[in-house]
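Usage

Read records sequentially. Each one opens with the input sequence:
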Amino acid sequence: LVISAAFIISGGVLWATGSLNIESAGYAGIWLLAFIGAALVFAPVGALAAVCVAATVDLNPFLIAVVAGSAEAVGELTGYLAGMGGKAIFDRNRFYLRFKNLFSRYAALTLFLGSIIPNPFFDVMGVAAGSISYPIKRFLLLVFLGKTIKFTWVALGCYWGLTTFI
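and closes with the structure output:
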C-alpha cells in the first residue's frame, strides 16, 4: 500500500505539473494509468497501450510488467469491494447460489486465467470474488501474478516488435 501511495502521489504531481508523458513519467505514469484503468469498472483507459509505448522508450519491459501488474491488481479491488457491498442484492437472485457454488470451486483458476487474458469482463470476476467473500490476499496475489504475466507478454512483444522496425 505504501508503494501504491507513492506511485499515486508521483503520478498526481506529474499530472498537476503537466508533464505526464511516458518519457518523463516513467514507471509512475504507467502505474497511474494502469491503476485508473482497472479501478474504473467497465471503462478501459488504455494500460495496454501505455505499456506497449513504455517498452519502446528505453524502460525495462519486465519492470514495466511488474509495475502495471501491481497497479491493476490494486485497481481491481473496486470491483471486489462492489461485490462485497452488493452481497445482499445477489442473495435474492435464484441463480446466485448455483453460481456461487460453481465459482467457489474454481475461483482461483478463474481469477488467474481471467487476469492473464486481456478482456473487459474481468471486472465481473472481481465482483463475483467479492460477493462470495473470496480471501482478499489470495485475490490480490492471483490477480497480480496474472496481470504481470499479461503485461510481460505485451511489453516484450512491443519491445521486440517495435524496436525491430524502428
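Summary fields computed downstream for this record:
- The mean pLDDT is 82.
- The two ends are 38 Å apart (CA to CA).
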